[in-house]
Design a protein that fits this description.
By secondary structure, the protein is α+β, with helices and mostly antiparallel strands. The chain has 23 helices and 19 strands. The chain has a seven-stranded mixed sheet with strand order 3-2-1-4-8-6-9, sandwiched between helices. α16 runs parallel beside α19 (528-551).
């Protein structure tokens, strides 16, 4: 799994590694800064180039030696060299390129440099926070079950589909833990007394309350609804805390379905450390996010959340800075009570609560085994709503509860929390990186003063060094260009959110991300306009650059630099255009990747074939079998499969379609009698965490940069072709409407013209007759 498996699990060794990292890092940074000041600045451009490219080769080859990279001192040395390459670039930028040529030039030049400083600062901070990713082993519970703590499971919900809540609640009842020590509660904030009494919302809230109470009664679990929605999710959880008494609280978003072993892998940590307040586990998503779905990258490249839950969380866990992510986490009640419950001053109540707990000296642990299965937003608009909330909440932390200066936090914790809120300024940085080359090529604004030789000595090594370092730190979980794609798509839309929080940090309010939507048709996202405009401006910059190249030879170095920069932006934008053409989503229950033995027999019990699972959902299953007899469409068969802990499942399903594949015949089956087998289906689809572990680890070979670039461009072609086809069909559709409207108006105007022309004639005839 994630992290470095060679890291000793002994707590004393962990503390020793932390203690050694501080002086090593401080000493090395001091030596680095001294060298930069006294030596590097005095080198000629040729010597600087030899130095930069030599160091670049060192980290390039070092990154390809995984055995030595497991040593702490090797990782520190690698990251210091990478930091040196970036710092020398920033010093060169500050001392050689910030030239005043006029107020407008200086204004945009300063904005660009500030954007570069923000990105570089987050990059260098991440080097420190990711110095040694930690993998936590399982801690077994004591054999004496009477000593185990009582656990309350909270399922906060607002306006989500009650059927979604039902799946999660059902799975919670199947968790492997003594039933007399386990209490489950649906926290229904969508059916508060205030909402039930609301003139417009009342009928829906009453219906929701009846339905969720019926689910709770059938499952034998608790149901809690409060009077009014104060302090959003934080207030909902705090209301339940005051009415329950479990020693440990497991918080699960209503779409985060738990596996049966989530408590077996987590509760034991509370016995190991009496000062432990939090055990966080990964958020694993069963369906693609809108970018993966619209670009067709799901199952082909690591998901966006994998970088955070497989790379960043294990890394900050080394510094005792793993934080509460709002769901899939266990918290000690006494620690929560000491900080006044879930803190709700910002809309990222989870991270804010962790800051306060860490400031009191409590510890946290990150267990990197995926044991919940959630849902990603289905549309780009909903995806952006979720990211806007995260962005606003983290920036609120900066202004309202700044962890950088929070009393009680260790130095490393301050650095880790600082990286979290600093990162979300990327909206401003990405916007500047997009518009900068066009500002020069279209409007002649002098924002970057450098020759082509200087670019090769300073700029190119810095860019390549960053790519090598990010691949070194996160290569298994986030491939080069993919982070840039995600940030580029979001950056333009997050910029207003950043400005809004800067203007009024208390203004943002909590907004629930819609989940479980179905989309009947493909459609163009309403957010596409600004991005298409940005793409058009970039395209228009190309002929201008050619004209400038021909008629302004003295500016050719700047034109080359901006053209290369513009080309990179165009590749990112080109690949992102398909994101805005929303793909159809008709499945009520998304299909999840699956693997494991499976068999097929007829209803009489005669075996018809054996094979393996291919995919699973609540409504059906896909299996690949080698049939021993003919399989007929729409016939009913019995599917037999097993969980990783040996449970057998026998479920009836109708064969909907079949197709030949490499290892046999793929059979798409629809389950029969879903309601009768509901609990078995929930257990089969969601109960086995080993399936999510296998999904994460299915790719064992890290592709080359060339392979990644190939996939990236293929995704771009895929997305753009669908986007262009969709836009063309949209234009044809609206064109037909306009033509029909024009014909209607033309006919109407024609009748009106005839009527008007005929009035004088009728009047003349009338006068003549009289």
């Amino acid at each position: 799994m994630q992290g470095d498996k060679t890291l000793p699990n002994n707590n004393n060794t962990l503390l020793l590694n932390r203690a050694l990292t501080y002086p090593l890092t401080v000493f090395a940074l001091t030596a680095l800064a001294t060298y930069l000041y006294f030596a590097a600045a005095d080198l000629t451009d040729t010597q600087q180039g030899i130095l930069a490219w030599s160091l670049l080769l060192v980290i390039f080859f070092a990154a390809r030696m995984p055995r030595i990279n497991k040593q702490l001192w090797v990782r520190i040395a690698f990251l210091l060299i990478a930091a040196f390459i970036t710092l020398r670039y920033l010093i060169w930028r500050a001392t050689s390129t910030l030239v005043y040529t006029g107020p407008v030039d200086f204004f945009f030049m300063s904005l660009l440099y500030i954007a570069e400083l923000e990105v570089a600062l987050v990059y260098i901070i991440n080097m420190f926070t990711n110095v040694y990713p930690l993998e936590r082993p399982a801690v077994a519970l004591p054999k004496d079950e009477s000593t185990w703590p009582t656990v309350d499971i909270f399922l906060p919900t607002y306006t989500e589909d009650p059927d979604l809540v039902r799946i999660t609640a059902t799975a919670a009842t199947q968790i492997d833990y003594p039933k007399d020590k386990l209490n489950i509660y649906i926290l229904d904030d969508g059916s508060t007394d205030a909402r039930c009494q609301h003139p417009q919302l009342g009928s829906g809230a009453h219906y929701r309350r009846r339905k969720l109470k019926a689910v709770a009664d059938k499952l034998g679990i608790g149901y809690i609804a409060r009077k009014e929605n104060k302090h959003a999710k934080a207030g909902n959880i705090n209301y339940a805390l005051a009415r329950t008494d479990g020693e440990i609280v497991l918080v699960l978003d209503c779409d985060h379905v738990p596996a049966h072993d989530i408590l077996q892998h987590t509760v034991g940590w509370f016995f190991k450390d009496p000062k432990l307040c939090l055990v966080q586990t990964p958020h694993f998503f069963i369906n693609p996010d809108p970018l993966e779905k619209n670009l067709g990258s799901f199952h082909k490249a690591p998901s966006e959340n994998e970088m955070f839950y497989r790379g960043i969380q294990p890394a900050i866990d080394f510094w005792d800075a793993s934080f509460f992510c709002g769901s899939a986490a266990l918290l000690r009640r006494t620690a929560l009570e000491e900080v006044g419950g879930i803190v709700g001053e910002t809309i990222t109540e989870d991270c804010e609560t962790s800051i306060n707990l860490h400031a009191l000296g409590y510890h946290s642990v990150y267990v990197g085994r995926p044991m919940v299965c959630g849902l990603s937003p289905e549309t780009f608009e909903d995806f952006l709503l979720q990211r806007t909330r995260w962005c606003q909440g983290m920036l609120q932390l900066f202004f309202l509860n700044n962890p950088t200066f929070k009393k009680g936090l260790t130095f490393a914790q301050r650095v880790c929390y600082t990286s979290f809120y600093m990162y979300w300024f990327f909206g401003f940085a990405r916007f500047m990186f997009f518009v900068a080359p066009s500002l020069y090529l279209l409007f002649g604004i002098q924002i970057y003063h450098a020759s082509l030789q200087e670019a090769l000595v300073y700029v190119v090594p810095h860019i390549f060094g960053s790519l090598i370092t990010m691949r070194y730190l996160f290569g298994k979980y986030r491939w080069p260009l993919f982070s840039e794609l995600y940030e580029s798509v979001q950056g333009l839309f997050l910029l207003p959110a950043v400005i809004g929080v800067v203007e009024n940090p208390k203004a943002p309010t909590f907004k629930v991300t819609p989940k479980g939507k179905t989309l009947d048709n493909d459609f163009l996202s309403p957010l596409a306009g600004p991005f298409y405009l940005m793409f058009s401006i970039m395209v228009l910059s190309i002929p201008t650059a050619i004209y400038q190249w021909v008629y302004n030879p003295y500016a050719q170095d700047g034109i080359i630099i901006c053209l290369v920069w513009l080309t990179i932006n165009l590749v990112l934008t080109f690949s992102a255009l398909g994101v805005f053409w929303e793909r159809q989503q008709v499945r009520t229950y998304p299909r999840a990747w699956a693997d494991g033995p499976a068999g097929m027999s007829d209803v009489m019990g005669r075996e018809l074939g054996t094979g393996r699972l291919h995919d699973l959902s609540m409504s059906g299953v896909g299996i690949v079998v080698v049939p021993k007899a003919r399989l007929d469409l729409n016939e009913e068969y019995v599917i037999t499969t097993y969980s990783s802990w040996g449970r057998e499942y026998k479920l009836r399903a109708k064969l909907k379609f079949q197709r030949p594949v490499k290892d046999g015949v793929y059979c798409g089956m629809a389950f029969k009698n879903m309601e009768e087998n509901y609990e078995d289906l929930v257990s089969l689809v969601y109960g086995d965490s080993q399936r999510w572990v296998d999904f994460w680890n299915r790719e064992t070979v890290q592709p080359s940069l060339f392979d990644i670039a190939q996939l990236f461009l293929k995704m771009g072609m895929y997305g753009v072709s669908h986007s262009v086809t969709g836009v063309a069909s949209l234009l044809r559709y609206y064109g037909r409407i306009l033509m029909a409207l024009w014909r209607h108006l033309s006919e109407g105007m024609g009748h009106y013209y005839i009527a008007v022309k005929s009035v004088p004639a009728r009047a003349r005839r009338k006068r003549r007759d009289s």
